[in-house]
Amino acid sequence: MPAVFLDRLPLPSLQAYTAVSVLLLSCSVYYAVQITSDPEWKLNATLEFENNEGAKNQTIENRRELSFDEVLLENKIFRRLLEIVIFMIQEPLCIWTLINMAYCCLILVGKFIQKLVFGELRVSEQQHIKDKFWNFVFYKFIFIFGVMNVQFMDEVVLWCGWFSVLGFLHLLSQLCKDRFEYLSLSPMTSRWTHVRLLALLSVILISSSSLFVLCVFVGLQAGLNTFAFMVAECALVTVRTLYIIARYFIHLWDINHEGVWEKRTTYVYYSELTFELTALVVDFIHHLHMLLWGNIFLSMASLVICMQLRYLFHEIRHRLKKHKNYLRVVRHMESNYPMTSLEEMENNSENCAICWDYMESARKLPCGHFFHNSCLRSWLEQDSSCPTCRMSLAVHGDGSGGTPTGDDNHNNLLGALGRQEGEPTHTGNQTTNHFFHFDGSRYVSWFPSFSVEVTHTNLLGNRQLPAVQTSQLDNMARQVQQMFPHMPLNLIMEDLRSTHAVELTIENILDERLVSHPSPMFQANTTHTAISTQDSSQDNYTTQPIATNERESDQRESSASTSDWKFFEDTVFSLDEDTSESSSEDNGGLTRALSSMGHGCRFSKSPQERESMLAHRKEELFKAAKRKYLATSGSRTAELASDPEPSTSYSSSSVYDEMNIFQDPSNSRGDGQWYSIPEHHAPEHVTER
Amino acid sequence: MARSALRRLMAEYKQLTLNPPEGIIAGPVCEENFFEWEALIMGPEGTCFEGGVFPAKLIFPPDYPLSPPKMQFTCEMFHPNIYPDGRVCISILHAPGEDPMGYESSAERWSPVQSVEKILLSVISMLAEPNDESGANVDAAKMWREDREQFNKITDRLVRKSLGLAPA
Ligand SMILES: [Zn+2]
Ligand SMILES: [Zn+2]
Fold first, then answer.
1. DSSP-based three-state secondary structure for B135
2. Would you give the distance in Å from CA A226 to the centre of its chain?
3. C-beta separation of B10 from B67 below 8 A
């Protein structure tokens, strides 16, 4: 890209540039003053004045000759200034210094805004700005000289001026976007920062809309094409800025409100979709317009524009594809995974496994796992398995019948559930596949059609399915075996093949339905596969008291964490008044924290305290590890001397080490000496990192 | 969305602080960026990494529980499943879609129910039992198979180095 080459360009520092441009400006002003004070020039110039603004000048001239009042003295200065300015505009050398000065001012304003709003720019922000800047310069160069084919200098200057202002706004909004995205990574940002950023965003918005008004005025005189060219960039800035502002407000709303508002994600999704698509479409039309209007089909410029068009088209297509995926997932979820009823929710006190938040309502997967509607949707957009148990959910394939694995009862179940709805989603699939093979026939191919390609993809999907499932089974079996090492792996596999969920198998084991040799009960389980899943998913609730204290303790923990969560939520996600308050009591809190350094320590309210506690815990870990290492290494060296083959008896030597720590008091005393020497290094090491 | 990621990370941070697993400390170094954590991992006992404390950084994506974080040791490491630049290559850190090595099933890969704690625990078990099929560091894998004594010497040096001690 052009940015790469232009990046190497050595740029002077801002101070030097400002100094040079001020110097140049003063030189040219001095030159202008010299020339204009020359009576001979005045004679020539007045003639020209006469043509332009004759009458006005005449009166001023007359008045000057008539009297020497103070007011007229002012008038004289004014006249002098006017003379100089007019001279400078006419003189090519002077006009360049003026333009240069204008750019210098723009840069200074930019710098000022940066200092005021952003402070120090981060590296990625700088990189973005640089890329964006050079890209903008490159494309506008192409536009002015390639598309518009501007011949006259003054036109070039006008277009340059226009694009400079727009580019400036573009860069500022890009900077705002980057900074906003960065700020949203942090749980606490001072309100003042938000205010400044939002103020800048609204300034950008206001200036872009006033530029729009300017566009209209110019367009009335220069014609529709010029208007369209001018307004495109303007609209882009406006849409992008609006998008950032909208996201910003959503973010602020989010931070200050608790809980998951299910509908919200839908609104946010659609507003994002609209903004993104609008920006892309405007850009696309703008480029298309350039290509068609410019009569430049076989030039370099057309090539560049075509490439940009291709890129934009690809982006739009990608976005639409994503949207289709979204719609398909939503439809699939609505038809196949019912929202849970209230009593089900009461029985299930676990949090959503995706966001770890409390669930007021949830969707239930066929494997018996619950998730928030929005959490599940965003996961299914990228993957088609249950996050917890990895059961394949066939969102992307088809739900109805035809699944290759005979024992895959869940898929059958799923198919039965989604049979009515299954067919429309199926055709939806086909259209997306079909759609992207024929770029031109975009609107025709919206209609479902049954072509060869579709069956092809179906075959592919079928072939992939069994492989995934066996390894999935493997993994699940290993998971179960970790908990019950006495169970043989093949038995667990067998059971998993029927239950398809780790939890169900575990329950089977706990309820002693699954014992070390296959019992008749278990046999029955495998034969009535389709029923057993429904059964056991209900078992989830009916057998809950039997399912040992593990689940109970789980419940206690989760309910405790939800109540804690509210507290921590209040403190952490509220804005800065709270932070400043807690940082004032920080010192007390810190000493408390330092004195009570246990194994598990408390979770502080204030971020500063958390940071310092974390640093402290790390330091402690290092110290402890070092102490321990030196203790064991003392014994290890002794052991090395006695042990002829240290490396082969590796595991046994570590056992020795442990025994040495616990049993040999002389060694631990010896370690005190060892320990005292390198202690000086410890803080050094920590600060170094 | 950054917001749900933030809440989730905060919850995980809290959990890891209140009851940390043995030999693991993790949290954001600077809370200005909650998506960049540092973790300290103690070498598991009974392995050649025993005694060492190895720092690593975790970078979370904005859509965090949906995509896995990236993990990279910031100290020198020598291990079959750790790239020479410190990046960790374990299946739990790979998104379900991608399969760079082509040998792992999607069941072993990232899912939103995984957590920082689980990642760090599997890194510990990776330290204890290297998987020499994955060639993140081919030299280390070869040495692990063929010359265990030399491997142990190197790791012992790394352990000492991680503790800020002079090499033995
Ligand atoms: Zn959720
Ligand atoms: Zn599940």
1. coil
2. 36
3. no
- Secondary structure E strands in B9-138: 24-28, 36-42, 53-59, 70-73
The 10s digit of each residue's pLDDT in A193-234 is: 899 999 999 999 999 999 999 999 988 888 888 888 889 989
Q: Helical H runs in A393-451?
A: 409-417, 419-435
CA dist., res. A176 & res. A118, Å (int):
8
Count, residues in chain A = 689
Question: CA-to-CA distance for A604 and A364, rounded, in angstroms?
Answer: 36
The answer to whether B154 faces chain A, any CB pair under 8 Å, is no
Best A358, A389, A614 residue to mutate vs chain B (most B CBs within 10 Å): A614
Q: Kindly state whether A647 is in contact with chain B, defined as any CB-CB distance less than 8 angstroms.
A: yes
Distance CA A113, CA A226 (A): 31
- CB B53, CB B61: distance < 8 Å: no
Q: In terms of DSSP bridges, do strands B53-59 and B36-42 run parallel, antiparallel, or are they unpaired? A: antiparallel
Q: Which residue has the higher pLDDT, A630 or B104?
A: A630
Q: For residue A260, which ligand has an atom nearest its CA?
A: 1
A353, amino acid identity: A
Q: In whole angstroms, what is the distance from residue B148 CA to residue A650 CA?
A: 10
> What CA–CA distance (Å, rounded) separates A178 from A126?
10
Contacts of B28 (CB under 8 A, 6+ apart): A611, A614, B9, B13, B34, B35, B36, B37, B38
Q: Does A182 touch chain B (CB under 8 A)?
A: yes
The rounded distance, in Å, linking the Cα atoms of A322 and A327 is 9
Instruction: Note the pLDDT of residue A242.
Output: 94
Q: What is the DSSP letter of B58?
A: E
- The per-type count for chain A, helices as H runs and strands as E runs, is 27, 2
Chain B residue closest to A685 (CA)?
A: B164
Distance A391 CA to ligand 2 centre (A): 6
Residues of B in contact with A379 (CB under 8 A): 66, 112
B165 and A629: CB-CB below 8 Å? yes
Interface subset of B 21-40, CB within 8 angstroms of A: 23, 25, 27-35, 38, 40
Predicted TM-score (pTM) of this structure: 0.63
Residues in chain B: 168
Helices A650-663, A607-642: axis angle to 10 degrees equals 110
* Cα(A253)–Cα(A246) distance, integer angstroms: 11
Phi/psi region, residue A549 (left: phi>0; alpha: psi -120 to 50; beta: rest), is alpha
What distance in Å separates the CA atoms of residue A636 and residue A657, rounded to the nearest whole number?
7
CA atoms within 13 A on the CB side of A329: 20
User: Of B2, B66, B165, which has the smallest distance from its Cβ to A184's Cβ?
Assistant: B2
pLDDT of residue A482: 64
Query: Are A383 and B105 inside 8 Å of each other by CB?
Result: no
User: Residue A444: which residues within 8 A CB-CB, separation 6 or more?
Assistant: none
User: Which residues in chain B have Cβ-Cβ distances shorter than 8 Å to A474?
Assistant: 105, 107
Whether residue A191 contacts residue A575, with contact meaning beta carbons closer than 8 Å, is answered with yes
- Residues contacting residue A311 through CB under 8 Å, at least 6 positions apart: none
The pLDDT tens digits for B43-77 are: 888 888 888 899 999 999 988 888 999 999 999 89
CB of A616 closer than 8 Å to CB of A594? yes
pLDDT tens-digit map of A523-573 = 333 333 333 333 333 333 333 333 333 433 443 333 333 333 333 344 343
Considering only the beta carbons, identify the residue of A251, A390, A610 that sits closest to B111: A390
Q: What backbone phi and psi angles, to 5 degrees, belong to B73?
A: -70, 135
Q: Is the ipTM of this complex over 0.90?
A: no
Which pair of tokens denotes residue A184?
A: 């949203």
In angstroms, the CA A587 to CA A673 distance is 34
**Cβ pair A684:B65 closer than 8 A:** no
End-to-end CA distance of chain A: 38
Give me A580's structure tokens.
Answer: 């400043």
Give the separation between CA B125 and CA A162, rounded to whole angstroms.
Answer: 61
